[in-house]
Design brief:
The protein is built from seven helices and six strands, in the order βααβαβαααβαββ. By secondary structure, the protein is α/β, with parallel strands linked by helices. The chain has a six-stranded mixed β-sheet. Strand 2, helix 3 and strand 3 form a beta-alpha-beta unit.
Length: 199
């Protein structure tokens, strides 16, 4: 069976995103801009589904269990004129856990953990933050999640899981994807072995 189409949306902005702080497992809510971005992603998705001849009611909707992803999903579904809370949660879509670095910026970690920071700079994909998990580990759970899909799916999750999904599906490498910024307020469409971004 071919890989189903995945309409992937990163949650809207939070105050920690705006400040450049690692969020990971921390449940930071959307800020005002983040709510606008979530609705915008829903409008873009509505246009894409109409263009693709998809009835949104026939798609699966699934989100990370973290609040910022759930709120984004509810705003997306509102833009589609669908019941806000009628979607599934999947723990495999959780953001990369950054352990002791959560709440801090990269510059702060460079100062407070210089040796670990230097080691991670040599292998950002394989070396986790202290007490966290590596992108390599997250890629395995995203590969498992994508392989479990039974049909075309709308997913709302995170920047880190978006990068991991790109590697899991073979559209980027673990080296090339590190330079990609996963945008908010847009829709990434994984289809036919590639990915396209729609604004």
């Amino acid at each position: 069976m071919p890989q189903p189409t995945i309409y992937y949306i990163r949650h809207g902005q939070t105050a920690w995103n705006a400040a450049g702080r690692f969020q990971g497992a921390q449940d930071i809510p959307l800020n005002e801009l983040g709510q606008t971005q979530a609705t915008q992603a829903g409008v873009i998705l509505n246009d894409l589904l109409a263009r693709d001849g998809h009835d949104a009611a026939n798609l699966a909707f699934v989100a990370s269990p973290l609040g910022r992803a759930r709120h984004t999903m509810e705003l997306v579904r509102g833009a589609l004129r669908m019941p806000a809370d009628d979607y599934a949660l999947d723990d495999r879509l959780r953001e990369v856990r950054f352990g002791h670095w959560e709440g801090f910026t990269l510059a702060q970690m460079q100062v407070s953990h210089p040796e670990h920071y230097a080691t991670r700079e040599l292998d950002k994909w394989g070396v986790p933050a202290p007490g966290g998990e590596s992108y390599a580990t997250v890629t395995e759970r995203m590969r498992e999640w994508a392989g479990s899909l039974n049909g075309d799916t709308v997913a709302v999750a995170h920047g880190g899981t978006g990068r991991a999904l790109m590697v899991a599906l073979g559209v980027e490498t673990s080296t090339s994807v590190l330079d990609l910024f996963i945008e908010q307020g847009v829709v990434y469409v994984f289809r036919d072995g590639g990915v396209e971004k729609y604004r």
